Amino acid sequence: MKKIFVAFIAASALLAGCSKDDANTTVPNDGTIPLKLQGEVIAPRVTDVAFEEGDLVGLYVTNGQTPVYTNEKLTAYSSALIASEELYYPAGAASVDIFAYYPYQENPVNPATIEVPQDQDAETFVWSDYDVLAAAVSGQEPSYSPVSLKFNHLMAKVTVDVEMTGVGATAEREEAVGASLSLATSGKLNIQTGEVSDLGAAQALQLKDGRTAIVLPQTIAQGTKLGSIVTLEGQSFDIVASKEVKLEGGKNNIIKVTVQVDEYIKVYVSCSIADWDEGDNIFVGGPTVNE
Fold it and tell me: Is the pTM of this model over 0.90?
């Protein structure tokens, strides 16, 4: 993954005074209040629901248009995000704006040039290296309590869900169905807005555990080949988009392939969107039959 730059400038008032941490505590904004941060990923990254110990996060803090901390490196320890030196709310600031991103880059640029591997089932493939996350908090008043940063996924998760039906269907045959996808593997991603530009040409993708991939958000035109499946008997069938399909960032974009095995084998394809952690489906595609 190439470098990410976050030009984080938010509008907040530059005012002197004090803030209330709770009903009984007055918090002085004299530059002595530590800025403590906690990180939470909105939905599981793959199997975990939080940062792993040692993950590096980039932090930007501004007081109005005045930078307070620029691309500060934070290290995850459980849910806490810790800088190498203590961070503080700036003196005289009624509030600050906070932006954080993962994975951390030493010399970031925005939009970032992203390229995911074509072979995502390789032992060397590390999903979290490409799971770009971002979180923002505006108008944070000085507080003794940690600031909770809720990180959202900016990339798109894609899952191929294979179901075999008909008189010839067996669990063994269903499990043996191989799948691959044909999607853009490179492009530019705006780390603040999630906007994608300059998508490259579609490439063949080998899926993690044979079923899942992480890619840039992208739109697939109706009638476009999304990939293919291969049955236990070696028969190959195309997966074709029955209508325009949007692979959304922060979502699990499910491509459901129904293989009907009767006298002949037929393949039905539909697409849906679910929460990243397998929430309820929202139907966005109709079936296409390829004989």
Answer: no
